Amino acid sequence: MQREFALSRVEEASEYPLGLITAPAGFGKSSVLTQWYQSSLSKGNIVGWVSLDYADSDIRRFASYFIMALDRAGVEMGALTFAAEQCLVELSINSVLSKIIHALANINQNIFLIFDDYYQAESSEVNNFVSSLLEYAPDKLHIILSSRSQPDIQVGSKVVNGTAFEVEKQSLCFSLEEIKDYVGDEYGDNCAEKLLAQTEGWAVAIQLAIVANKGNKEIINLFSGKQQYIVNYFTEQILDQSTDLERRFLLYTSILDKFNVSLAKAVCDIDDVPKLIYDSKNIQSLVVTLDKEETWFRYHHLFSDLLFKKLKRDSEATVYALHRKASLWFEHANQIDEAVKHARLSGDVDRAVALFLKAGGWELVLYGGVSLMRTLLRNFSVNDFERHPQVRLAYIYLMMKDGDIQGADAQLQKIHIIDEKVGLDAALQRDFYVIHSLLRIYKDDNKSADSIAKLESLANNLNTTDVLGRAVLRASLTLAALACGKFSIAKIAAKAGLNEMRQADSILGVNYLFIHLGQIELHQANLDVAQAYLTEAGNMAEINFGIDSRLKTNCDINLQALNFWQEPNQLNADKMLELLSNACDTDGWFEIYASGFTSILEFLRIYQGKELAWKAISLITLTVRKRQIQRLAQLELSLRLTAALISRDANKIMLVMETISEGDIFLENEDHSYSWLPFCETTLALGIAYLDGYKSKNIEDRIETSIKIARRIGAILYLIRLLVLKGTLAYSKNAVEAGVKCILEAAQLAANQSIKTPFFMSPIAVELMQTSIELNAANPSKLLETNFLKNCFESRKNLNVTITAVPQHSLLSKREMEVMSQLAAGKANKEIARNLDMTGNTVKFHLKNIFAKLAVDKRINAVNRARYLNLI
């Protein structure tokens, strides 16, 4: 029947960003919302509906339903729909929020989204998600929540400020006229008045009273009391009036969230289930149809709870037996999530674990089953982890994929492996070492010199038929070797792992190893090969996991970095930060972060963006704090020094330089160069600071050490950058021949792959390029190098680089500029005085002012600083 007054209240609520329908169970919230939903659809509105249960408190599941509801309602959600079907396992929730808001911004009409039974899914994460949408989504979005109680989303303040409207239970109570319409003309006014007086208009009590009295027009079985007791009473009345088969059906199926004919048969051991469902008035009065075909059903939650409590009181053993039957049925139907849930509810944890491990356990992740694994793990408690460490290992892997590395580490410590060779179940031992190897990669914890040898041994000692286990260990070996600069070992391991992942049919694993191979080739400056690997990985990720997947993010970070090293203007810095933010929130490791942040670093040196610098610092600081990666903390120092140089903050510059020096690790050990990358990167940062007039101790020795490391391990991209730095530093000290020699060697290494960006690291480097071209114009043996440098020099004109310099008139006076020019020409004080017709004391006075304005203390530093600022 139409509930006109209640519908008018819901209509009013729908006009606000947030509409709330709050009332205890049985007040007809869902019925009224269904009527409003159908009416709104008939008007051509965009309306979505989501019915929630307790499992939907998982934020990714909730957000997935949000997206799919919008998609079904006709809102174009693009790649988000595909990601939602995968339960958003590849995206951070912040990224999901921004993408939803962006999608909604393109809609020109009102969008209504109903969440029925919101109380079942309510959690702090879900509440925050809804609150964020209400705050940032366009005004066209209207969210309607149906709940038994007021959700914790600051409803009071929202009502006061006019952004929310609440429909309470008084608006949902049946009026006398509505009761008369419901019971029909055959019942007298006295009957309707009695129903109103004793049920207070509570919809479910009115419904049960009519069913329980079986046409007795006097309705004599009512009594005064609390509403809950009325429902208990009438439910008992219905059971008492039911046949044995009806009673058995009602009680036995109460253990199920939903059921169809086949499932009900399996659980109840009743053959004629269709007749009971479709013909029994007692059963029809309590069930709700879930689909248009009328094949799936459920009870109203209120009835289900009452029926289940009675069943449990009568025989708890029966409850366990019924759950076991349900588990067997769901296993046969290949619905593993329900099979595991009912096995756990039957009290048979061992069976639940066996089903989970049969489904794949932690290996589900490598077959795109993160969402399923997340759902399955919800069935296990901490006590279950103690008895079943393989389940704990799967939980640890899930924590790693979600970015909770510290939590994963703490959980792994609880698995006690006493001896590597004796007393261990083979499957557990294998799983432990595989998951442990992955955790060490995420923690960036392969510092010991024997890490590589151990991983090689573990991979080789696994059974040759265990291709997935061997492949994962080889992927870990690849990254451990890459971290130590052992590129040959890394490449061999990655290719072997790639073949094994293919044999194991893990598309996800193949994707990861393509990324690893791309990163190796990028370090070795084989950019064409790196691009082939990364492009293939990106295409696979997009096809199999969606355009916004974590894998696609990791590919895009590396591809953007690769293109940047060839041409600086190929980097979209804001996009790179967005990609890095996603990787930092979810599934990333040091090499991914390093690839993105080092390109941002060099971009900042060329384009001098203050705002971008501090955005990057905020992100890397947050990631270091969350991930506790020591090498990333060293990169953070390079970024902080670069930002301080851009801001010309002398105090910060000196402080960061001191911090870098205090934490230095000179890597002379041939067998272990674990911090080679951050060491080279901080060397570059200190070298640029030196060119800017901020001298650090032994900078030449440090550059030589870095070059030695880069040569030894074959890190050609870093070797190019370091040679440019060395040459630029020499040139700044008027050692022109040494400077030209270095930059020509860098050009020789860079020419084949057109790696231009390192040659723009400072204005002095650009000046050195021009000088090198001029000095070698007639040298045929240097034709390759000079042509490449010419291309670089020409490319710089198209970079739109604006050197952030203080105008001459506001920094140095005209007379100081004259002194500065003499100083740059290498003139002594007496020569400057004679050339400018001033006294020696006047020269000293001007030099003192120049040093103060440029924040330097030496003549050579003043010259370098002036060149950097384009003053000379």
Detailed description of the structure:
By secondary structure, the chain is mainly α. It has a 5-stranded parallel β-sheet with strand order 2-3-4-1-5, sandwiched between helices. It is elongated and about 120 Å long. It starts with a helix and ends with a helix.
What characteristics describe this protein?
872 residues; elongated; single chain; mainly alpha
Quick structural summary:
With 872 residues, this protein is mainly alpha-helical. The chain contains 48 helices and 7 strands.
Proportion of residues in β-strands: under 5%
Largest sheet: 5 strands, parallel
What is the end-to-end distance? 87 Å
Number of strands: 7
Amount of helix: 55-70%
Write the layout of secondary structure elements.
Blueprint: H1 4-13, E1 18-22, H2 29-42, E2 46-51, H3 59-73, H4 79-85, H5 93-105, E3 111-116, H6 118-121, H7 124-136, E4 141-147, H8 155-160, E5 164-167, H9 169-172, H10 176-183, H11 189-199, H12 203-212, H13 227-241, H14 244-252, H15 261-268, H16 273-279, H17 281-284, E6 287-289, E7 297-299, H18 301-314, H19 316-332, H20 336-345, H21 349-359, H22 370-377, H23 382-387, H24 389-401, H25 405-412, H26 426-443, H27 451-461, H28 467-483, H29 487-503, H30 507-523, H31 527-545, H32 550-566, H33 573-585, H34 590-607, H35 610-627, H36 630-647, H37 650-662, H38 676-691, H39 699-713, H40 716-732, H41 736-751, H42 763-775, H43 783-796, H44 808-811, H45 814-824, H46 829-836, H47 840-854, H48 859-868
Helix pairs in contact: 1-2, 3-4, 10-11, 12-13, 15-19, 18-19, 19-20, 20-21, 22-24, 24-25, 24-26, 25-26, 26-28, 27-28, 28-29, 28-30, 29-30, 30-31, 30-32, 31-32, 32-33, 32-34, 33-34, 33-35, 34-35, 34-36, 35-36, 36-37, 36-38, 38-39, 38-40, 39-40, 40-41, 41-42, 41-43, 42-43, 45-46, 45-47, 46-47, 47-48
